[in-house]
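ugh finaly. both done.
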Amino acid sequence: MSPTLDSKLAEQSVRTLQFLAVDAVEQANSGHPGMPMGAADMAFVVWSRFLRYDPSAPDWADRDRFVLSAGHGCMLLYGLLHLAGYDLPLSEIRNFRQWDSLTPGHPEFGHTVGVEATTGPLGQGISNAVGMALASNMLAARCNGADFDPVSHRVFVLASDGDLMEGVSGEASSMAGHLRLGNLIALYDDNRITIEGKTDLAWSEDVTRRYEAYGWHVQRVDGHDHEALAAAVEAAIAERDRPSLIACRTHIAHGSPNKQDTADSHGAPLGADEVAATKNALGWPLEPTFHVPDEVREFFKARAEEGKALRTAWEGRFATWRGEQPERAGSWDAAHADVPADITDRLLAEAPTNDSATRGHSGAVLQTAAQLVPGLVGGSADLAPSNKSVIKGSPAVMPGEYAGRNLHYGIREHAMGAVMNGFLYHGAFRPYGATFLVFSDYMRPAIRLAALAKLPAIYVFTHDSIFVGEDGPTHEPIEHAAALRVIPGVNVFRPADGYETALAWGMALERGDGPTALLLTRQTVPAIERSAQGELADARRGAYLVSGTDRPDVVLAATGSELHLAVAAAEALAKDGKTANVVSIPCRELFERQEPTYRKRLFPEGVPVATIEAGLTAPWRDLAGADGLTLGIDTFGASAPAGVLAEKFGITAESVIERVRTWLG
């Protein structure tokens, strides 16, 4: 039940949302007023009648989630959060899009209270919502029952035409339909306008029929008719076996005499004259700006009290349930538990010591990690046998069957990245996702957003170099390690053997402030013999001494499958009377954060440096220096057996030794 709401108060509330957006965009002289004006009706219906939230406890675990996938319309969300009673004062609404404000140009998770996901790049938000809904169903499968369902929240998402044009939303929506995520309700703002003009310039499909084909429950309503909207939402909530799409026919800049249904209102202020005309047309006072009627505030205050009562009642039932159902409560705790503080040490204690591909080492380490972190779940984009990414002994998550830990994403890398982010926004479980490194390109938008939102996603990227071999250059990553390393906040590990693979997994799981990528080999690599055993503790610092002395003649630095080549070159140089220090750099990002004294200890001033990695050489120039040697590959690969490629591209021990000797003279 919601506080008393008549049609006049509903209209006032919608007008308040519309003109908070209009005034904020006008004052900032930047923003998107049209979408908030057109979508205010549907958002208000959800927030006033259905959404379960408590602004005094914004992280309440069983709150409904509301994701604004159309992030350009963020002033609609900010207006809702302000009115609802979240810690977002009117001064922040006035400060829209300004330096250090809580109302940035697109919503940012962790920056503005009540924002459930960082959205803006179209298609990501609705795809995140799929991850949230899936996490919720998986948690419910473990915890619900015995006269109380601690997991009963729904996921609402407001999506635009642009969201549904982007390919990532198609992948994720297809996955949602397949998995029958009945707790997912998408309101589609069908205003038929994008930046360039009417959508029929580039888009003529029947979106509702497409979603029906995905397996969604689809309805069509007038997006400005509150009772029709409410009836559609009620029907969507009642539909538990399919996700729901409510196609809401709306008018962008609804109520603006000259800008309604035009692209002019999409991404620019209405302008002073049109603001005045619109306020006059809709019976809204010209002054003061940012006007909020007292009765609207009172309504939302009552709504917040209702939400608080729901939350406190849930907490009481939850406490009773925890005492009566310790096994189910244990499943709840496992899904939300922090990773053990000593996870890296425990994984290193059982690190593989044999010669193997690092993807094989990763598969072995994963089994130990899964035992230590019961909330760890994940899957692959149809490459699990190659990625070695299955948690053994656990069933797969399937339509209507959500108790397992293994996810089948299908050939949907775009969706996998965004769905993983949705898991992390939701708060239950710790996800990983796997594919070939060359296909990380498909995931890049979601990886970037994970870094921006500081989400600790884990990416398992196998087949990390030309040594994929016969698959040829289309499948051989040359630039991909470098491309991932330039994303701020991403830690990229390229481990050399079982020890470093265990280290990489442990540090990825330890991390709580950003994503980690593990780059793993297809081909077998030897276990590394480390003569500088006392330096192993430094491996956590991203780079460490494998062998050498305090006074080297040269430093040979390598990553991953090329580390053993550096070891071989050092042994050959020793026969020449030259001392070569071998430095492994499993994670360059961690190393670059170390203090200068440590970096200089590994790379002493005046000592020549050679770097070895089967990928682009330019990113290593700053470490090697102007006169250093950077060994790698600056062209696309070729199709041939891995051994032939190693010889042709000069990535063999013999070639490395010869080139280093020539370089040193």
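ok and the 2nd:
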Amino acid sequence: MASKAAPAAPALHDVPELESRNYPLLIIGVMAASLLQILDTTIANVALPHMQSSLGATVDTVTWVLTSYIIASAVALPITGWLADRIGARRLFIGSVAGFIIASMLCGLAQNLEEMVAFRALQGIAGAFIAPLSQSFMLDATRPSRHAQIMAIWGMGIMIGPILGPILGGWLTETANWRWVFFVNLPVGIVSLAILITCLPQRPRRKRRFDLTGFALMAAALAAFQLMLDRGTQADWLASGEIWVYLVITLSATWTAIVHFSVAPDPLFERALFADRNFVIALFFMVVIGIVMFAVMALMPPMLQNLLGYGVIDTGIVLMPRGVGILISMQLSGVLMRRGIDARAVVACGFLISALSLWQMAHWSLAVDEVHIIISGLLQGLGLGLVFIPLQVSAFATLNPVLRTDGSSLLNLTRSLGASAGISWMTVLLARNIQTTHEELGSHVTAATGNVVDFSTTDQFQALGDIAMSLIDAEVNRQAAMIAYVDDFWLMMWITLAAAPLAFLMRPNRSGAVSPIAPSE
């Protein structure tokens, strides 16, 4: 009898933190809001050339449409927890979705670059609170035994949104107008807002002082870091005094912020967050996920379109299996977690599968076919999905529920920073490797290397000779670019492999039991 009664004990605590009037409808509303915010981080990228001509911007200034959103979102993210405690998480979530809808409408109506940059900054601020609040509300409204499943559902929007963004943005721009990239948010956003107003539960508020010094230091560090990444390529990185200013501000503000958070009586982030080993390791892994996932997504479309001759729709089709892989493995990871499989082993396995896909991509050439691209993308999606869900569950397993909003904002922030840094890093390496490889390949294209004409005689053919030389140079460029892409894939593969064994530094989390760490007083 005792053996039969023992398993029932944990079920007494298997209740959600918050009760909702209609749980399934609440999940739909929260996911709709979360997906809109994630889509908008990438959906506007493909519409930039059309915005440039319509808004009277230049190639350099039109990028502020993206930069203003990224900087505003990064600066606002750290205060999510404090605002949720101050005005109420329900009020903040509903206000954020409403503000995002209004800002999206204003972006679609913008008549010049100044208006667009201002409205995109407003959209970034409103959207910054949506991701952490959606994650914390989904955890709070769900029984602990089903946290793996609910994180799989939330993760689908987070991981698939950036993949669908460029495809949807390209289709809307081609078939309608670039303004519909923003107007498309309105119908879905309004439905989400109505559901949240009806079903979103109220979370208790707690008194908490605002750490103005900590926020100012983090804002300075994040803004300078994002500006450095955005302006680096145009300003030639450390050869520019402007970039040195951003770098010094980033390093000094970050170091000062760390010291301040260590000694401040009421820090912006509870110190209990950083006392949890699983959570700290999850922050590191979020940087790796940001680098690998978002850098690959940034590299693939231009490679497919510029080197392999794919159209916008064809590019979306061959990249879609990556999203399918994520969908499959996220559900699989939830099943594995419920069956008691060690989350650390699942995370390590996911990183190894992602590394395998990058190894395959590192062997591509200009002759690669659709089948190999689809298989590699599917494998990478499977790997990333296996990493994301167990990592999220392990990160929150030992955190007190009152720390979830702060924890979620930090996880989203580190993923965003990893994505920004990864994209800039890989893009810089790509550009430099193209130059050096072009020089190396070009030095071997001579009359003495084989079946190549004597270049000294091409001038007698006048225009035809120039065309022939241009064609040869273009082919050397294509080969050099492909080699540079392969070098990036090799580097990301080694980063992913190096991260895999670090998963076993986390505490084991098989049962999903929660042993909260209390917030600091």
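summary for the 2nd one i guess: The chain is about 70% helix and 0% strand.
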